[in-house]
Amino acid sequence: AWTKFAPQRFAKAEDFQRDAVRHVETSLARSMYNCDEAAMYAGTALAFRDRLVMDWNKTQQAHTFADQKRIYYLSLEFLMGRALDNAMLNVQQKDVAAEGLSGLGFRMEDIIEQEHDAALGNGGLGRLAACFLDSLATLNYPAWGYGLRYRYGIFKQEIVDGYQVEVPDYWLDFNPWEFARHDVTVDIQFYGHVDKWQDENGKTKCSWEGGEIVKAVAFDVPVPGYGTSTTNNLRLWGSKAASGEFDFQKFNSGEYESSVADQQRAETISAVLYPNDNLERGKELRLKQQYFWCAASLSDIVRRFKKTGRAWKEFSSQTAIQLNDTHPTLAIPELQRILIDIEGLEWDEAWSIVHQTFAYTNHTVLPEALEKWSVGLMQHLLPRHLQIIYEINLQFLQYVERTFPKDRDLLGRVSIIEESNPKMVRMAFLAVIGSHKVNGVAELHSDLVKTTILKDFVKVYGPDKFTNVTNGITPRRWLHQANPRLSALIASKLGGYDFLKDLTLLNKIEAHVDDAEFRKEWQAIKLANKERLARHVHETTGITLNPKALFDIQVKRIHEYKRQQLNIFGCIHRYLAIKAMSAEEKKKVVPRVTIFGGKAAPGYWMAKTVIHLINKVGDVINNDPEVGDLLKVVFIEDYNVSKAEFLVPASDISEHISTAGTEASGTSNMKFVLNGGLIIGTCDGANIEITREIGENNIFLFGNLSEDVEELRHNHVFGTYQLNESLAKVFDQIQNGKFGDASQFSALVNAIVDHGDFYLVSDDFESYCQTQDLIDESYKNVDEWTTKSITSVARMGFFSSDRCIDEYAEVIWNIEPVAPTKTD
Length: 824
Ligand code: 26M
Hints:
The protein is of the alpha/beta class. Helix content is 47%, strand content 16%. The strands form six sheets. The chain has a nine-stranded mixed β-sheet, sandwiched between helices. Strands 21-20-19-22-23-24 form a six-stranded parallel β-sheet, sandwiched between helices.
């Protein structure tokens, strides 16, 4: 009976207008005579939020009623981007809203632009979590995400004189998408000590006493699926002081200031996202964040389970918890602690529940990214957890010793505790031991996990514990939302938008590859997307781009292993070649625009130097009249999800050129190909599977293979190699001051010339440049290029995050969807 109050689907534009205007006038207390784009954004968001909320409530009720196994995705990062456009498209009402807005005198694009990105993540790992939430809801899985409600997301990047400057990203001024649940709180303990005693049966018991308490407050964000009423929940925890507004004790005794300071200290826990990508630095506040979030989430999950009245032995058949990298590994000893110290289970029974509940996804094999925490710090912050970790380790090592009695070294190699000075807790090992499945994110990566960092664990557990789930991306955001015209063209050939729910249907467009009209529209869409990007570049940098030029894009975090330096050295090489050409020769050159974007971690000097060099090289090339349109080099400031949405559809070529064996998967490679761009890439991460799907004629691969990397590095260390000649000429120019003060770039050059060229830039340079030449040749043949583009898109169905989530559901979680409730 209550459903009659539910907001109705907007049958016509007027229905939407009525709700949006009502929100502007009542929720915002603004007159429509004084309604700017920001206010209209708010009204629109609130009108759609009303709809989402009804579906969300019904979904949660239905999931409680179904009482099936749930999946909890624990991630310190959710790189959600904007929500409004996605919400309108997922409930399939964007057209109605666009008509309504236009009737009120607004343009849809301008309204969408008002929204601040939710940038609670660094890069690939955080965006993957966001794609997974979209797929989980779309596929009707009963799933919750758990994360932290950072007050500051990833910093905003400004480029000043060619240098990166970091500016805080305060994003919570107006956020209509979150609901503060001030009644859903958890007390989180830190520090203190462990008391040990005998209970009435003579059993030894432990309890964690003293220390300090911080309160976790839940903030819930609705996650709508596409074309379904299922709306899942993303729960983000914010921290605040435990005693509420003030510690009255302190307040009354005149310690006003210290009471305020306590409060601020508590709020610091969820204040800021650590801006490192693939680098671990061992900061105490980061460990506090991790425990705060794990403990709050686990308490919430256990509370929900206990409400069902089921026995503990059913916990792992009702609950799957996925660990997004090792960041939530403390959830393992935390659940064990809850079960034995608080719920009174025996160790063995508790441990079998824990181990059946968790699964761990590894996202990197880079040694500097593997999490380790000093035993001293853990002892101080989480004394009971350290004890439990030691006990887990003891039992594990006893098992290893029994099973492999002759291999004494093995014990030291697999121990959770690294016997270094100081001693360290190896989080990846704890995650492996506490999980029933471990997966990598692309085939090559999953193999490398098994043969390098977790080799000994394959010996201990056998190979079946380790598996691969190749990453995917949501076609809703990365095709339909980012490239509506391409999505519409595909729909026109496929007789509708079913492909957005089953991306393998894309293969049906291959039948139209020779259809002249279709090809013409395909090309026109790419050109229009490039024109839009060119407008953005002109407005933000003053640089004029020729939209007919070959657009070459590399956007991702700046990191030595991703080798933006290879790309910029390649640009210099191309520039030198153009400078040496006659007027006749220049006529044959394919004009090219090379676009970079990405953030460097604030403390990563080498990465910041790469950004500086890109900007300086751009200054020289873009202002050289002898070059003109033949080459432009552009750095896009503050690359983020929203910028990706217009960059990805505008590329002819994108670069995925990591040293083989270093990029676990990559996901932007999938986004670019899905939008009709071709790629230049190494045999690394998901590039390999993309090649297998689309065919090797449709991708430009180059460079050394992963299996040869070790030996090549050896050659550098022992001086048995020669710096590539073309690269040497590039370095000459840099060192001559062609791009400004040479000393600024010496570290970058020396890393290659003097310090072993760890990422093998020199070894791959020749092959990289040759492949770029091949790309130019291929681009000249418009027909051939268009065929490659269409064929590639047709074969990208495999890379939907829906396929990926279905694999997790079947192989790792053993969970089934819940039928959605009817809408309206
Ligand atoms: C560590 C310590 C302190 C602060 C942050 C970190 C940290 C943050 C992110 C460490 C690693 C982080 O992410 C690793 C990552 O993003 N890996 C990427 O995961 C993607 C999704 O699976 C893959 O596609 C990328 O190849 C992989 O680099």
